[in-house]
């Protein structure tokens, strides 16, 4: 009804000012308009609803670039709500000079197209292939038409959790990059994980393959401030893995597991999380974030009790952290013991960035145990929000205000 629509708009306006749930203050950054000519159109959306006035993303990432410009990207294809409108595997980028101002991010242009730009990807096969479109409404959820793709070949190339990174010190080592890179996982037959480089020296690409074969998925990049060596950090069946890259970033020189598996049993006393890693260094302390299902008391992997029917009502897909004095660890719970802590509720698969002297964490809502998002979260599902962070007692945790 018109009244319901007006109430929804009023609620989002209130959320733009900052809101609190269970003591955590966050700010909704939308609407997120997609204004570039490459934005989806109803004629090319494969039957999905197009909403370019407020584009929906998951795995939302914000970084600072040169000249005070901030860049936002995330997962825009694969399975999800009705507004995941990218049928083709692409990476989109938005920009803003005032990232905490709601509605300030604009653009959304494609900077990488999996079908056109992937050099190592093979042709379309019976199982799909990275160059195939996602021709079903939902892709990757299940094996039947009711819950996923049938036939499987309809489930094409998907770019999961792309991250845009600016490493200006690597501009000379990687010609034409300008220090701009995208870490990726291509979830498709013949895909895999690695790093792309810009070929124009700008964040707008085009981007092309740089290194392929990073173990696992959910890849992030981190340049160690101690020696400027660049690592990928990724997740897989063996835990969270750091891979040291060569100086030209074209090969993997060594790998090390920096956090063990967070699986079926509670892992707050032994590990950090099971996917979506990200690293930020603050005043000499390395904070390693990773996603898991759980709450401030404990958490676990996707098959744990925290993501099953009967899961605690406060169990969410959130960001948990460990702290160390070097990238390779050992990581502790910030209190000189093994394990981790809840850093950002509903911050699952997010990142952390600096703005005006503070650290902020991105938040997106919607990946809930049993798909039972709290009613207050529903207006924010797959839309960008942030929370300000601060170090308290050796732990990076949510501050009590957004600014």
Mean pLDDT: 87
Total of helices: 2
List low-pLDDT spans: 1-5, 140-148
Proportion of helical residues: under 10%
Beta-strand share of residues: 35-45%
Shape summary: globular
List the topology elements.
Layout: H1 2-16, E1 19-21, E2 24-28, E3 58-64, E4 70-75, E5 90-96, E6 106-113, H2 114-117, E7 159-166, E8 180-186, E9 192-198, E10 207-212, E11 217-223, E12 230-236, E13 239-245, E14 252-259, E15 275-282, E16 285-294, E17 299-300, E18 316-324, E19 341-344, E20 352-355, E21 358-363, E22 385-392, E23 395-398
Antiparallel strand pairs: 1-2, 2-22, 3-4, 4-5, 5-6, 7-8, 8-9, 9-10, 11-12, 12-13, 13-14, 15-16, 16-17, 16-18, 18-19, 20-21, 21-22, 22-23
Structure description:
The protein is mainly beta. Helices cover 5% and strands 37% of the residues. The strands form 5 sheets. Strands 1, 2, 20, 21, 22 and 23 form a 6-stranded antiparallel beta sheet that branches. Strand 1 (19-21) and strand 2 form a beta hairpin. The longest helix is centred in the N-terminal third of the chain and has 15 residues, at 2-16. 50% of the residues are buried.
